[in-house]
Amino acid sequence: MDVDGSLWFDYYLPLIWALLIGTAIVLYVVLDGFDLGVGILFPWTRHEADRDQMMNSVAPFWDGNETWLILGGGGLWVAFPKAYAVIMPAVYLPVMFMLLALVFRGVAFEFRFVSKPNHHWWDIAFAAGSTVAAFFQGVILGAVVYGVTVANGQFAGGPFDWLHPFALMCGFGLVAGYGLLGAGWLMMRVEGPLYGKARQWAVPLLGALIVFIVAVSIWTPLAIPGIAERWFTTPEIYWLWPVPLLTALFAWTAIRGVYAGRGLQTFASSVALFLLCFAGLAISVFPYLVPPTITIWEAAAAPESQLFLLLGAAPMVPIILMYTGFVYWTFRGKLKPGEGYH
Questions:
Q1: CA–CA gap between residue 222 and residue 215 (Å, rounded)
Q2: What is the fold, at CATH topology level, of the domain defined by 10-319?
């Protein structure tokens, strides 16, 4: 494609927006992933002190972490309206289930402590909301990667097209992955008996995540010929072959971190596994936003609209990063039993 002169904006603005949205999604998965993971782990202990400590460890961060979900979803809507108009009808039900789960989880944060000792249902709302939200985020991803039925640039499938084994497996895999992030976070941020429990939880969760990664890696090329062709032809294969090697390396460093009791190593290695999965996904589907039919350029809004919106988004992203970093710095350190921010 000729990218000189007047075509510069047509070519590069969609790439910039795709990079911005992809960054927002990665930050959301990493940041909100660990606090959703803490909620997923909530039923794994029945000790009230452990549950208080688990909630307090993420209380200063959870609502700010969800900023990136808004940026990712809103960015898709304004920068790639054609893709948004196709994807949303295809996964409307999973999106609604995810949002309702996030609502229940958020309300539980506000009401659990003030309703003691009658807070049993808020415990359920926090754990179930976290688990359901994580599951349907994985389902949405799996449904989009597997393929959306498109005709004449519009969604042409049914309301339950997303309900297939591949998408469900991705949902369960993301639950395991978020649980691992939550365990790594607790190892890194808490002291006392809960620290030891987090180490115990991390081992089966890491094993489950690796199983799901291997299963998806085998299933994807078998079920999706377009991705299989990319994986085993040049030049994509040169970008892809380091991914499984690095995945094995970081899985090994994660398990070493667990057994050595190093929370930062466990958490950072778990984050690296997510980043590698995202890199593999990007290599598999780029430049399609709606695989395998609509590219980022076909889905893009008018260049003037993208540029206008970028002028507003560009300064906001560093501001969000700065206040996010300030919050994490302010509430640094390990949380001891009985301490909290509520």
A1: 11
A2: Formate dehydrogenase/DMSO reductase fold (1.20.1630)
